[in-house]
Design a protein that fits this description.
- This protein has a domain at 69-176: Chitinase A, domain 3, CATH 3.10.50.
- It contains 4 helices and 8 strands.
- Strands 1, 2, 3, 4, 5, 6, 7 and 8 form an 8-stranded antiparallel beta sheet that branches.
- Helix content is 29%, strand content 23%.
- By secondary structure, it is an alpha+beta fold.
- Strand 4 (97-99) and strand 5 form a beta hairpin.
Length: 181
């Protein structure tokens, strides 16, 4: 009887162990991600060099560099106001999209007039950042590296993979947000 209780006790104690996790068949070294990061860095470096070459050739215009990584110059400046769009403002604007070699991808006519609620609607990253830099009745040309344009995916239409863009943006109207009472 003591033997049966001892065996039963051993079985109960060994059966209480949970399932042992399996070890992975393959281990990932992370080299794919490291290579991808390196490719992205090299691509950005090449695009930035091309943008710098354009700026150097276009020496009559003064280009500004944004915190997000694009460059722009003004065609017209509105000195009568200091107000730039804020979150929830409605901005009415036009823009076009060209390659850095000035091949038109989408004209202003193709795109039409856009009404955009700041930070509440989708635009590609560069354009989203550009809209809030301009005041009403200002016009500027922006140069975007592909990472701020449509990136590695393109737009599934006219804009291919990793295409840096040039865009002339005109802010027609800014409708300030109405504060709730």
């Amino acid at each position: 009887m003591k033997t049966r209780i001892g065996i039963l006790l051993c079985l109960i104690l060994t059966a209480c162990n949970g399932p042992e996790p399996r070890k992975p068949i393959q281990t990932k070294s992370g080299s794919f991600f490291k290579e991808s990061v390196e490719r992205s860095k090299k691509l950005l470096q090449l695009e930035e060099q091309k943008i710098q070459d354009i700026i150097k050739i276009d020496s009559l215009k003064h280009y500004n560099h944004t915190a997000s990584g694009s460059w722009y110059h003004y065609w017209s400046i509105n000195d009568s106001t200091e107000y730039t769009p804020k979150t929830d403002d409605l901005v009415v604007f036009t823009y076009d999209l060209l390659t850095l070699d000035n091949d038109t991808l989408y004209s202003t006519k193709d795109i039409g007039v856009v009404t955009y609620k700041v930070d509440k609607q989708e635009l590609f990253p560069g354009l989203r950042n550009a809209v809030v830099l301009l005041k009403e009745n200002e016009k500027a040309t922006f140069l975007f590296p592909s990472s701020l344009a449509f990136g590695y995916h393109g737009d599934n239409n006219r804009i291919g993979t990793n295409v840096p863009l040039k865009s002339t943006l005109t802010v027609l109207k800014i409708e300030k947000q109405k504060l709730a009472n």
